[in-house]
Amino acid sequence: MMGHFSSVFNGLAKSFAMKKRRNSGRCSGREAAEAMAKEAKKNHFLLHSSGTVSVDGSNNFASVFSKKGQKGVNQDCCLVWEEFGCQEDMIFCGIFDGHGPWGHFVAKRVRELMPQSLLCNWQETLSQTSLDPDIDIEKEKKQHRFNIWKHSYLKTCTAVDRELKQNRKIDSFFSGTTALSIVRQGELIVIANVGDSRAVLATTSDDASLVAVQLTVDFKPNLPQEAERILESQGRVFCLHDEPGVHRVWLPDEESPGLAMSRAFGDYCIKDYGLISVPEVTHRNITTRDHFVVLATDGVWDVISNQEAVDIVSSTPDRGESAKRLVECAMHAWTRKRRGIAMDDISAICLFFHSSPSLHQVATQK
Hints:
Elements: H1 2-20, H2 25-42, E1 46-47, E2 51-53, E3 61-67, E4 76-82, E5 90-99, H3 103-128, H4 138-166, E6 176-185, E7 188-194, E8 198-204, E9 210-214, H5 224-232, E10 236-238, E11 248-250, E12 257-259, E13 265-266, E14 280-285, E15 290-296, H6 298-301, H7 306-314, H8 322-337, E16 346-352, H9 359-364
Antiparallel strand pairs: 1-4, 2-3, 3-16, 4-5, 5-6, 6-7, 6-13, 7-14, 8-9, 8-15, 10-11, 11-12, 15-16
Helix pairs in contact: 1-2, 2-3, 3-4, 7-8
């Protein structure tokens, strides 16, 4: 399957290179990725806003919904790309939470850059890495696949942050975005997280109940390893008097910018003081026990627990409405739990792993 993707990608890249008379494989690879994105959008395999993506014959089904909060323009944005890179068994899901005066532009730009850059870097890494033919152990083959994705994600995030800094049309000095994404390739899911959005898996426990498993770390400034890095870089971490419990990142000598996360794209005003855009990249092999994963911005997790989110999604009869129902439940929870605080933008992606709608049956059996 990897070899098939490689030939598809190389064929597209070669045709672009001939047409444009360019010799740069990286440039032609980027154009091939852009062409794939346009083709996916034309075939309705690519979703930029609220709705669903389901391709005939695919095991994937994704539900997406986003709701503007009470702070101005919606700075959340999402992306679902089915048949990612023209591969039937691959899907990319990403959720981006912007902040600062230009945050919505930064989030949309990262949404545009990340999947295409990831495709290019994955193909490049794939072509430079050969699997030892003597490896027979399936576990080692899976680890090898993950290592390729991890390396590709690390290169991608470095490139995306560099491009943002050089972009003269978007002022990201005091603005930025988080980025949480998942690539599913067959039964492998790879999770890359920059910031404080969260991925939660719904899986069946030994007693046949549906339980939540958190797949990511919320990168808040008060986490020991994050705080240590920030303080070593002369940044500061503290809460404001009117926000007890909300730790933020500050410059050494002024109360700015006050970021509530320790990793983000953009925010170059504080990149020298401990903020990084390096993703945590992890993976999981999907089994028949695993049903779906929820990706959501902190507007959900500030008021909804992991298990509540799983229960809400699993009890929604129409899977196409699952993300919308989760967001609406979070909106109601904000009015109850956070009175007097302006509601944040709230966005969610629900990615179902199996084509059969057995989740509601699982939920009702609990």
